[in-house]
Amino acid sequence: MHTSLIPLRTILTLGVLTITAACSSSKTDQPADSAGAGAGASAAIPASAQGTSAVKQDTLGPKADALLQRLQSTNADSLRVLLVDDRQVVTGLIAECEQMMRQMKMDPPRKWLDLVKNLRADLDRMPGMTGPQLTQAMPEHRKRIADMLGMRRDMMRM
Question: What is the pTM assigned to this prediction?
Fold first, then answer.
């Protein structure tokens, strides 16, 4: 009976993520609808801020938070299924943070470089792991993702 809950949990998680994505995408469509209102709509946002991550709706952070929850609550056999989502979220976080650092003309700190190196190594080696090996490696991998999210949030406040 316990194994029948896993597909239900996965279905519920995917449903929540789909609803969340649909709701957040409707919020990002709002500026397009108000574009016909004239130049006043875009004039309210400084030209230097237009197109930056500070203005856009944050969808990657919630995706990463949801992934962390799933990686923690998923059993060994189901972790392999999550590796595709894991790779997508982690590579997205890395790319977005690197872009933010370039926009701020910021040199990546040593801690960041080490974290990225370790996460990329995780992404390379995890597909070849068995369920029990993934279960053993997951706490450190989750910590790395959480550390990256913390650095990302700090950069977004700058």
Answer: 0.61
